[in-house]
Amino acid sequence: MRICRRTVLAGLIAVVAPLAASLAAAQAPTPPRGAERVTSVEGIDEFRLQNGLTILLFPDASKQTVTVNVTYEVGSRHENYGETGMAHLLEHLMFKGSPKHTNIPDELTTHGARPNGTTFFDRTNYFETFSATEENLKWALDLEADRMVNSFIAKKDLDSEMTVVRNEFESGENNPTRVLIERVMSTAYLWHNYGKSTIGSRSDIENVPIERLQAFYRLYYQPDNAVLLVAGRFDEAKTLELANQAFGAIPRPARQLRGAYTVEPTQDGERSVSLRRVGDVQFALAGYHVPAGADPDFAAIDLIVQILGDTTSGRLHKALVEAKKAAMTFGGDFQLHDPGMAFFAAQVRQDASLDAARDGVIQTVEGIVQMPPTSEELERARANLLKQIDLDLNSSDRVGLQLSEWIGMGDWRLLFLHRDRLKAATIADVQRAAAKYFKPSNRTVGLFIPTPKPDRSEIPPVPDLAAMLKDYKGSEVVAAGEAFDPTPLNIDVRTTRSTLPGSLKLSLLPKKTRGATVVASLTLRFGDETSLANRTTASQLAVAMLMRGTTKRTKQQIQDEFDRLKTRVNIGGNGALVLASVETTRENLPAALRLLAEVLRDPGFAQAEFDQLKEQRLAALEQQKSEPQAISAVALQRQLRPFPKGDVRYVPTLEESIAEVTAASLDDAKRFYGDFYGATHGELAVVGDFDAKEISGLAADLFGAWKNAKPYARIAEPFKQVPAATLAFETPDKANAAFLAGLNLAVRDDDADYAALTLGNYMLGGGFLNSRLAVRIRQKDGLSYGIGSQIQASSIDRSGVFLVQAIYAPQNAVRLEAAVKEELERALKDGFTADEVKAAKTGLIQSRQVGRAQDAELARRLDALAFLDRTVAWDGELEQRINALTPADVLEALRRHIDPAKLTIVKAGDFAKTATH
């Protein structure tokens, strides 16, 4: 696979007339006093306030949501000695409050927002996505303006949050791939801060003085070092005025930011690093210095990484996976403000040769200099990258967040310029870049070998962005969609429901969307409790083989065709069903559905592909054998779902799963497919820009006559009364531990208590950092980076589950478990206040509304409701029941169903090591 730490590659393909750009510029709002218009590119307007704040407005009437994102041009690159991880630590403290917003997590939850903050090498950003109302927008702008310069950044908050960040650090230490990439980076960079991971050094996290953190905050968190972006459904003129009111009063700081002057010297020979830790699979990785993200060569770098690292077509995959020298390969690049890195890796099972995999990675990557890409490889890579671009940039909320990476590189317009360069890159460009950067002396892996005449890579400096981007206008503005109201009533009015001749249930919701995007969700159901017995592994392998080739096309040809159709497709499933999702555009939907039908109905089941699949499954399962979260999750499921071995609901151990996959044959998967697959029982939902009549007829043609060979009967999930238990598992050399607690519930989602249980859980362990568990265990005690709870309930069986999950340092096991129990007992004893209940109702209902505004989520929901013979009105009625609840209703429901004494608790971590310290 190809991985990338930045959130977007580049640009957008024009789909409207050239006149649109000039019209958009003409219709841009007149800036209020104190603001000036700067530029406009492809529907994004830039303004600047007198205090230096840059404002980007990206209106999208097709969204019922607004995203407010503030990007500060400061990240781990700007940290000094003893301050590693400080930019990220400050990100956490920015949620601790300011004079006007003393409880930020509570406000975010009350407004039903989907918020977060992220830190990387060059930038830090804070965002919230919420329902598109003027009140919500005004609140969000006021929140970001106040915490820009007035955040408390207090010693007491640092004392509690430091342990949370340390726990996040420990969580990352459990991932050998992530740590190996960090080690390669730190070896490749001698002086530049890119050699230090954003999470920082443990000692710096634990010991940084609050005074240095406050000085860092005052230096960089200023309007002249920030970009405010508003994306979604809003009035531009009014929003610009609101932004000016919120931020305009902040004075421009007197200080002048000093530019960074450390330049990484040219690497003068191969470097190597070894990582020795507990684990079950091996990795070999090679990294190469590449130019700054703004450099014209970076388009060629992106294409090279795709050509080499793609799972199906990549040269690494063909040279190593298909040759059975590795289970998996991948490639990626860091596109940054200063010269970054490209890296390539292979995952190898323990019984395979790591040296052979390392040599294979190096020979394949550096071999591209002697064996330049073919036209087919280049166009395939370009199509794949541009497909991702097209689909990503059709969503204004995604763009609003992804622009942070390009702002960190120096200018948001680089996104579009990089896109243009991808389109224009030639084989000669790719070959020149390969020869320039992918050479032994620029490689970090292997041994040092004296060389009389070193052949070194001179990395160019950061380009002159002002000159490069002068008068840049970009391509045409993408066609806008309609202003769609995602209320249950409107969704039901706009949705047509029918049953195809073969019994497949069809839900169609046509509406105009940005970029004419459309999503589809398909569920196929099959088998019964008897026929599916002892066939779970065959089912999993059968569904995994679908995208690996049909009788007409190879896996590569399928991928190429979906790329050409600018379509994202995911197919998965379990023992009793298959789930497929499609994201594409109006013009490509019919062809995409035809290809999906070919994949589902005419799989090729090639032996070579099956062999690769088994290797990858076994490597993934073996990696989980030492992972605390995987071990604890399997153990809890086995305890709460005690079905006999062979039952389709049985939860196998990791060892049993490995044994079953090892023993499985291609014939097992083929027989399962032949015995069960068909569309007699299932649902298809389509949401977005499409012709309902055309798609209805096409669905009937593609799936209407596809019959299941065996009878279907839904497999029940009966309530199981299981005794309380406490299970502990040792996972040596793992810095992070996992905690899970669960309790089976005799409840269904239409029971009288379900609404109260849902709201009670939202206050206990849901929301955003302001639930009872989060406030106590993360905010106050600083024991866990991730803590929460959830309620699940069947819509048919009176069977549900209550779950609590947390990650933590092993030495905090006793404190964390005690805190969880204390908060549960407090909630069951005292209940929740009227203010808590009122705020939770608002936040929970708004959060559900935000979910319905996402087309992919809505399609999945329509799919699920069709199976239950429900409409979205059912969701609206549930929200009405939630809104009518009193604190007493919630307390009584929790007391009836949740008994802490009956919890099953599972812990996994390196407890033996901490006991000796």
Provide a concise account of the structure shown.
This protein is 43% helix and 17% strand. It is an alpha+beta fold and 917 residues long. It has a seven-stranded mixed beta sheet with strand order 1-2-3-7-4-6-5, sandwiched between helices. Strands 12-13-17-14-16-15 form a six-stranded mixed beta sheet, sandwiched between helices. A five-stranded mixed beta sheet has the order 18-22-19-21-20, sandwiched between helices.
Give a description of the structure.
With 917 residues, this protein is of the alpha+beta class. It folds into 4 domains: 49-247, Metalloenzyme, LuxS/M16 peptidase-like (Cytochrome Bc1 Complex, Chain A, domain 1); 281-455, Cytochrome Bc1 Complex, Chain A, domain 1; 488-703, Cytochrome Bc1 Complex, Chain A, domain 1 (2-Layer Sandwich); 725-915, Metalloenzyme, LuxS/M16 peptidase-like (Cytochrome Bc1 Complex, Chain A, domain 1), CATH 3.30.830.10. It contains 34 helices and 22 strands. A 7-stranded mixed beta sheet has the order 1-2-3-7-4-6-5, sandwiched between helices. The protein has a 6-stranded mixed beta sheet with strand order 12-13-17-14-16-15, with helices on both faces. Strands 18-22-19-21-20 form a 5-stranded mixed beta sheet, sandwiched between helices. Helix 10 crosses helix 13. The longest helix is centred in the N-terminal third of the chain and has 19 residues, at 155-173. The model is unreliable at 1-26 and 446-451 (pLDDT under 50).
